[in-house]
Design goal:
single chain; 7 strands; alpha+beta; 128 residues
Length: 128
């Protein structure tokens, strides 16, 4: 089982089934990201007193992702078309690609390009 922590702003979108993916930096050392078919545990505030479980899901897909704020997104299948960017951003918990770009520029101001891993999930079940 692999656990992921999210900023509190994303918890309602995960719980509602609107956010079905996350983009993470590659893990180094012994750590690894989920693999398709593995169980996922989704939290906010992991390793803090404010830790809360959002729910459980199953990893559906993992692939390299290149994020270029305000310019585009490239996955294994190639660069997303302009009309696909807003849909991709909504699946990641944002209103649109503009909102996603602003977030990435704030979180990663030093990186004009972010090379990470896209992790998608299915079968979300909220925490009781």
């Amino acid at each position: 089982m692999v656990a992921y922590s999210f900023k509190p702003r994303f918890a309602p979108k995960i719980a509602a089934g609107d956010k079905t993916q996350t983009i993470r930096a590659p893990r180094s050392g012994r750590g690894r990201h989920a693999r398709p078919g593995e169980a996922l545990q989704l939290y906010t505030g992991m390793r803090t007193k404010a830790c809360a479980k959002i729910g459980d899901s199953t990893c559906a897909r993992v692939e390299p992702a290149l994020i270029m704020p305000r310019k585009g997104v490239a996955l294994d299948a190639g660069k997303l078309r302009a009309r696909e960017l807003d849909e991709f951003a909504r699946a990641d918990g944002f209103e649109d690609f503009e909102d996603m770009s602003a977030f990435w520029e704030t979180q990663h101001p030093e990186a004009a390009v972010f090379l990470g891993v896209l992790i998608c999930w299915i079968d979300f079940v909220g925490a009781a």
